[in-house]
Amino acid sequence: MMVLMEDPLVFCVSKDHPMAGKDILDLKDLHQQPVILLNRDSVHNQILISRFAALGISPKIVMHCSQITTIMNFLRQGACGCFFYKKMLPMFPEIIGIPLRAEILTHIGLVWKKGKYQNKGMRDFLRFCKSYYTQ
User: Fold this and answer.
1) Which of the following CATH numbers is that of domain 8-106: 3.90.1170.40, 1.20.1600.10, 3.10.350.10, 3.40.190.290?
2) CA distance 49 to 63
3) pLDDT below 70 — which residues of the chain?
4) Is the distance from CB of 28 to CB of 57 less than 8 angstroms?
5) Hey, CA dihedral for 49, 51, 52, 55, is it positive or negative?
6) What does pTM read for this prediction?
7) Secondary structure in 3-state letters for the chain
């Protein structure tokens, strides 16, 4: 495994969303709020569901989706929010990212099976990633 970066999740909404003016959120603020989550099998989704469950919170999950374009179309309508990585926000200037008081820091990286053969292309790619992300 190679960790390339760390990035916190932020709750993202349109500028017209009722929560858009908040500086910081607690997960409990999202109880029964309409939320879009990534696909059920994603680590992103599993982290959020476990955090909600630990707090006894039930957000109103509108849908699970892996298509950022679809999620952004829903967000722009102002009726729901979602969780994205903070570093994604510059790509979407019309979206506001609200940090969480209890930060959810995620590790983004590459994972591969140890002991398995890696061809030259794979070794070169891993070497490049390691040098690029340690600069």
Assistant:
1) 3.40.190.290
2) 13
3) 134-135
4) yes
5) positive
6) 0.86
7) CEEEEEEEEEEEEECCCCCCCCCCECHHHHCCCEEEECCCCCHHHHHHHHHHHHHCCCCEEEEECCCHHHHHHHHHCCCCEEEEEHHHHHHCCCEEEEEECCCCEEEEEECCCCCCCCCHHHHHHHHHHHHHHCC
